[in-house]
DNA sequence: ATGAATTCTTAACCAAGGTTAACCTGCTTT
DNA sequence: AAAGCAGGTTAACCTTGGTTAAGAATTCAT
């Protein structure tokens, strides 16, 4: 669907016009390559096996990125909210089938741009290339920290970290998904919570 | 210590001369910026709190990169062997104090180059820049796969994966470090192994 | 070669999370 | 309003890994 200027969040405009100092022409050029996709709650933006052909800015809504193991258990790698960019990182850069699913937790409005278009645009607008290189760098740091956390903390400690660092997610994310993010079963999360509330 | 041409492994020469098609001048230029560091077994190449100021090519030996949690338990992020490049990724790129330790498991010969020199060299030799960009990309993929594994597999499954994919490490890495890599205690690894050998 | 020091294994006991099933609550649907 | 459903909680039981300590096996140093 074509992007209607009125659909775009102020945050998106601030990001490019205010933050990255895009000229109006550059911004229009960018917009002309973006499509608006509406993903209803519970629907998939990407399924494992498909190729992640575009990056999407979350204009509204939130998603979960997860894998499914051999025992059919889901493991959530991360949640994404407004102002995040989503794609299956490995699939996007290799153009090989993804191993992860990206599913809308709430109705989502996504501003999408294809890898092909973005690659060209990045050559025309170096600021854009730098912006995504920065994003990539931060994403690596976040992944390494994540790995460190998963390796060194107990589920309870990870839960407490989540409460401390991202309390807002409990307003928007169902418990079962929090459990899948912590890699425990829903009854364990319930127990853990009641154990903590008694202290 | 200055790098003596005779110290360098054939693999290193093949990498740059054969693989990356460096001219002799480029190769000499690279070598002129590298230093040989000898790290004896059990000594640290990097300690948490220090800044990772250089990249090092493992000419000989192997290392472990690990963190220490609040309960003083060590968690090994990965092992590195000959022909790998080591640094604390986040610290190297941000020049902030590292949160990880890098310790020699065997006596190591490292070919080191400072971030400052490498940044300059990469401008002079674009092939070098591309080479490290590729490395970085692969490192991200590996980290994401690692995270997926840690989140979705049991220690037993991770052990079996290790046996299947990297059987050689059992020749060189003590059990206690394998346990710290799997994020279990040594007695658990022993139990797991005896359980498996009975099947 | 011998003693000392690591490293690995084993055993006993404990704690935490998995599994299953029942139950409760709040929503949707008709 | 009643039935159905999804999400969350609770309880009972089981499995697995942590903890501690003791003992066996290796390795190292002299």
What are the main properties of this structure?
homodimer; Jelly Rolls; four-stranded antiparallel β-sheet; 9 helices; alpha+beta; DNA-binding; elongated; 49% helix; 199 residues
Protein described:
- The structure is a homodimer of 199-residue chains.
- The radius of gyration of chain A is 18 Å and the shape is elongated.
- A four-stranded antiparallel sheet of chain A has the order 1-8-3-6. A four-stranded antiparallel sheet of chain A has the order 2-7-4-5.
- Chain A has 199 residues and is of the alpha+beta class.
- The model of chain A has no long low-confidence stretch (mean pLDDT 95).
- Chain A has a domain at 5-124: Jelly Rolls, CATH 2.60.120.10.
- In chain A, a hairpin with a 5-residue loop joins strand 4 and strand 5.
- Chain A is built from nine helices and eight strands.
- The A-B interface holds A 67, 69, 73, 75, 77, 89-90, 93-94, 99, 136-137, 139-141, 143-144, 146-148, 150-153, 183 and B 67, 69, 73, 75, 77, 89-90, 93-94, 99, 136-137, 139-141, 143-144, 146-148, 150-153, 183.
Question: In oligomeric terms, what are we looking at?
Answer: homodimer
Total helical elements of chain A? 9
User: Residue share in helices of chain A?
Assistant: 40-55%
**Secondary structural class of chain A:** alpha+beta
Strand content of chain A: 15-25%
Q: Count all strands of chain A and give the number.
A: 8
Can you tell me the CATH superfamily of the domain at 5-124 in chain A?
Answer: Jelly Rolls
Sequence of strands across the biggest β-sheet of chain A: 1-8-3-6
Q: Please state the CA-atom Rg of chain A, rounded to the nearest Å.
A: 18 Å
Low-pLDDT segments of chain A = none
Largest interface: A-B, 25 and 25 residues
Distance between the termini of chain A: 52 Å
So, CATH architecture of the domain at 5-124 in chain A? Sandwich
Return the average pLDDT of chain A rounded to an integer.
Answer: 95
CATH class of the domain at 5-124 in chain A: Mainly Beta
Which outline of chain A best applies? elongated
Major β-sheet profile of chain A: 4 strands, antiparallel
CATH topology name of the domain at 5-124 in chain A: Jelly Rolls
Report the order of strands and helices of chain A: HHEEEEEEHEEHHHHHH
């Amino acid at each position: 669907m074509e992007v209607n200027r009125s659909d775009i969040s102020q945050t998106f405009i601030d990001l490019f016009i205010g933050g990255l100092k895009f000229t109006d022409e550059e911004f229009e050029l960018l917009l002309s390559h973006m499509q608006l996709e509406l993903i209803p709650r519970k629907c998939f933006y990407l399924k494992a096996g498909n190729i992640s052909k575009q990056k999407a800015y979350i204009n509204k809504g939130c998603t979960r990125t997860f894998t499914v193991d051999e025992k059919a258990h889901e493991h959530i790698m991360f949640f994404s909210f407004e102002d995040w960019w989503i794609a299956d990182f490995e699939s996007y850069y290799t153009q090989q089938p993804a191993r992860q699913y990206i599913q809308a937790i709430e109705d989502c409005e996504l501003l999408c741009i294809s890898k092909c278009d973005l690659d060209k645009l990045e050559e025309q607008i170096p600021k854009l290339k730098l912006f995504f290189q920065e994003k990539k760098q931060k994403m690596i740091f976040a992944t390494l920290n994540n790995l460190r956390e998963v390796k060194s903390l107990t589920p309870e400690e990870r839960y407490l970290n989540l409460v401390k660092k991202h309390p807002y997610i409990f307003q928007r994310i169902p418990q079962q998904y929090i459990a899948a993010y912590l890699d425990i079963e829903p009854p364990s999360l319930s127990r853990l919570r009641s154990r903590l509330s008694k202290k």
